[in-house]
Amino acid sequence: MDDIAFLHELEPIAEQLLARHLDTSKEWFPHQLVPWGRGRDFEADEVWDVNESGLSDEVRSSLFVNLLTEDNLPYYTNTILGVFGADSAWGTWARRWTAEENRHSIVIRDYLTVTRALDPIELERARMRQMSGGEVPHPPTAAAGLVYVALQELATRVAHRNTGKLLEDPAGYAVMSRVANDENLHYLFYRDMVQAGLELDPSRMVVAMEHEVRNFEMPGTGIPDFTTHAMAIARAGIYDFAVHHDAMLVLTIVRQWKVEQLEGLDDEAERARDKLVTRMRRIEKAGQRFASRRDAEPAVAVR
Questions:
Q1: Fewer CB near the last or first residue (10 Å), C or N of the chain?
Q2: Angle, nearest 10°, between helix axes 170-200 and 3-24?
Q3: What backbone torsions phi and psi does residue 201 show, to the nearest 5 degrees?
């Protein structure tokens, strides 16, 4: 099967999962989560005070990356429509997904503005720079696209939820938890689409998994100083190699999709599975090494 035939075979499953999502997701409103009473005007010549928010550099880095990732939504939408198409259940899902993801950007930015958690001028300049570049991954096949978005949605859910836990602010925790809940529903859609793909063509999907795990990057590629912020996020334990392995790869590759138990793979897929298992072991060891030395390293400020 080529990609068109592959997606056509999976279209009935996409319709079922879209209906499930619409039945499961709950309506919510950004303005009801933002603590507006804590806000005040920004004067034209006012300089943002880093001490006003009381947040660590690592948490601010995570909020910065999380929001700018959501801001880059149009390019993610363009990629998804290009991979899966704009018609039928695929297109309906992509448009619904876009509307929900845009709501995440709204509520996070409003919260950050009201609480003065980030420098609003720096944030806006970074948004303009990132969206002018429009950098997002481009999965090479439809199968790789399904695996990529499943992993990306789960990684985003984990990052949002872990960030919320470190905010020490009930309002901020509520915002990040609400967004994480949405991301979980998105993950479930794509997780089960990958499962359907495995039942249809397991060899195709295993090859796609190996490619996406090998090339996976934390959501936020293209954000100014992304590597520096990613390291700060890792130091805080929000998203590091250990989280990547334990909370994402084990959950999906091992427990959900049960890759090591699949039978009937062709030679290419067998080789891909071997590489995938080996890479996961390396990631696990890297996570253990990073965690063992994290506390011994001095904190590096990210301004």
A1: C
A2: 140
A3: -150, 80
Measured CA to CA, the distance from residue 217 to residue 136 in angstroms comes to 10
| Residues in Cβ contact with 33 at an 8 Å cutoff, skipping those fewer than 6 apart | 107, 111, 171, 174, 175, 178
How confident is residue 148, by pLDDT bands cut at 50, 70 and 90?
very high
Q: Kindly state the tokens that stand for 146.
A: 């399904």
Distance CA(102)–CA(117), nearest Å, equals 20
Residue type, 244: H
Q: pLDDT digit string (tens) for 258-298?
A: 999 999 999 999 999 999 999 999 999 998 888 887 666 65
Domains and CATH numbers, the chain: 3-25+53-294 (1.10.620.20)
Cα 181 from chain centroid (whole Å): 12
Q: How far is CA 132 from CA 52, 72, 129, 135, 136, in A?
A: 30, 10, 5, 9, 12
| Closest to 126 measured CA to CA, from 114, 109, 111 | 109
